[in-house]
Design brief:
By secondary structure, the chain is α/β, with parallel strands linked by helices. Strands 3-2-1-4-5-6-7 form a 7-stranded parallel beta sheet, with helices on both faces. The model has no long low-confidence stretch (mean pLDDT 94).
Length: 272
């Protein structure tokens, strides 16, 4: 008997046929790509955003939802369950990136807004849609964090909020793991989306960023969508409480970039 697993069996582990997936921030650059990928893999996807997402064809669902409002999230969850069934995959993607500011000059309203959307919204959706998973005894949650959650950036409230999302990810993974629910995070690096467009208006600044990434390119929303789909699938059945960093190796480069230019990357000067 051949003990090797067939290619078709391996590919089946990545499929999401018939599973109900909820994606917040579905109209943004990452959200659109994530929804498209989950649909491709066979999931029934509920697209959630502040404004009802457009262009969502049946049998999928488009819902207007304010993730910072408990009643709005509860209403969305009830509609998802009524029209698609119980949520089996939750992608907490909705988030905001506030303008750069120093810590001492940051307005308190900026701090609260970042935490309300990026952290409290993630908590409310986890609690509410998580009830579907707890009743079923299975599910997968993927939180979109950021490399700024691990390393400080120029937006204190954003960095702190994403760090807290990683903490929430770990806690949910441990508390709900015994109840059949896996929770992981994806931390994007330099990804070109409408949210980050401000950072790529200057050609020299863009080339500089590319030069800091070992794979010598910026990331795409599809790169993040593929990571999310993997963590949501049975191919990741034993992965729980982890942060999948999707940054082309950027966070591993500080010591390399501290070396003389001629010695960086073994002396290989890759084109940008």
């Amino acid at each position: 008997m051949n003990s090797q697993t067939s290619p078709s069996k391996l590919s089946d582990e990545t499929l999401l046929d018939g599973r109900v997936a909820v994606v917040t921030g579905a109209s943004g650059g990452l959200g659109v790509a994530i929804c498209e990928r989950l649909v491709e893999l066979g999931a029934l996807v509920a697209h959630l955003d502040l404004q009802t997402p457009k262009g969502v064809a049946a049998p999928h669902l488009a819902i207007s939802c304010d993730i910072t409002d408990e009643a709005s999230v509860e209403a969305a969850a009830a509609e998802v369950e009524k029209r698609l069934g119980r949520c089996g995959i939750l992608v907490n993607n909705a988030g905001i990136l506030v303008p750069h500011t120093s810590l001492q000059k940051m307005a308190l309203k900026t701090w609260h807004r970042s935490l309300d959307v990026n952290l409290t919204g993630t908590l409310l959706c986890t609690q509410t849609f998580g009830q579907h998973m707890l009743r079923a005894g299975s599910g997968a949650i993927v939180n979109i964090a950021s490399i700024a959650g691990s390393k400080a950036n120029a937006s204190p409230s954003y960095s702190v909020s994403k760090s807290a999302v990683l903490g929430l990810t770990r806690h949910t993974a441990v508390e709900w793991g015994p109840r059949g629910i896996r929770t992981n995070a994806v931390s994007p690096g330099f990804i070109q989306t409408p949210l980050s467009a401000e950072h790529y208006k200057n050609e020299d600044a863009t080339r500089h960023r590319i030069g800091l990434v070992p794979v010598r390119r910026l990331g795409t929303p599809r790169d993040i969508a593929n990571a999310v789909a993997f963590l949501a699938s049975n191919a990741a059945a034993f992965i729980n409480g982890q942060d999948l960093i999707v940054d082309g190796g950027f966070l591993e480069t500080p010591l390399m970039h501290a070396q003389p230019k001629a010695d960086q990357y073994g002396g290989f000067d890759a084109p940008i």
